[in-house]
Amino acid sequence: MEEVGFYGGYERMTAKPSPAPPVAAPMKPLVPTLPQTPSSDASDSSNDDIIKILRKAKSFSVLIRLLKTTQIINQINSQLITTKSGGLTILAPDDGAFSQLKAGFLNSLDDNQKIELLQFHVFPIYVSSSNFDSLTNPVRTLAGANPERLQLNVTAYGNSVNISTGVVNATITGIVYSDKQLAIYHVDKVLLPLDFFQPKAAPAQAPSLAKALAPKADKGESSSEEDEDQTTKHNSGGISLTAVQGTTLVSLAVALLAAATI
């Protein structure tokens, strides 16, 4: 609509501004941004020093100790530095999560199991907080991709990201650190793999033991055969002896008869 008026003898045309088109609402990610800890700012943290990041975030002393004693931290840092693309994602249980484990559980693990436990908490790819729904289950970890012993499934729904291992159901509660190559997420439980709780396959019988058992049966059979041979030999020996003795007696009788005749 236009308004027509007169001002100083001249006709003035005044146009109303047309309404602005509606602004499209931004797309809401399937998984909203998770809460961040004070250390999640990438500007003041070194992405090649995970220990420094965890120490600054606090409450990760048990995880830090395990990373150091197993020397897995060296592997992770090296892989992070040398990787060209893909990055890494670390699921970090805090001290409270480790305290929920059965007393003495960590001490019951050997060195290889501790290494497997830590590797089970690391994805060999970078996953942003809004992309957990794009993962394919079971998710591969640095521990391997055996779905029967090392399964790890991620479910992203609403405001939560849940993780299931077949033993533990955990939840990602926040972001410890995130940039374009490394993401560290805070999880409320230690992720225990099925591998720790499934019975191991019984070892095959040692060849030496089977070999040792076999001659016993053969020896028994050979002993029987030897006994039979010995019996035969004794019997044949007796017959021969009897025959020899019989011949001797006959010869002696003939000699005596000849002497008597003379």
From TrEMBL:
Keyword Cell membrane belongs to the record: yes
Annotated region described as Disordered, given as residue ranges: 1-46, 208-238
Compartment(s): Cell membrane
One Pfam family hit: Fasciclin
Gene Ontology, cellular component aspect: plasma membrane; side of membrane
UniProt-listed SUPFAM superfamilies: FAS1 domain (SSF82153)
Gene3D superfamilies reported for this sequence: FAS1 domain (2.30.180.10)
Signal is among the record's keywords: yes
Coiled coil: none
Origin superkingdom: Eukaryota
Membrane topology: Lipid-anchor; GPI-anchor
Ranges of residues in domain FAS1: 47-191
Entry keyword set: Cell membrane, Glycoprotein, GPI-anchor, Lipoprotein, Membrane, Signal
GO biological process: plant-type secondary cell wall biogenesis
Function in brief: May be a cell surface adhesion protein.
Family indicated by similarity: Belongs to the fasciclin-like AGP family.
UniProt xrefs under PANTHER family: FASCICLIN-LIKE ARABINOGALACTAN PROTEIN, FASCICLIN-LIKE ARABINOGALACTAN PROTEIN 11
Name this protein carries in UniProt: Fasciclin-like arabinogalactan protein 12
Originating organism: Senna tora
Lineage: Eukaryota, Viridiplantae, Streptophyta, Embryophyta, Tracheophyta
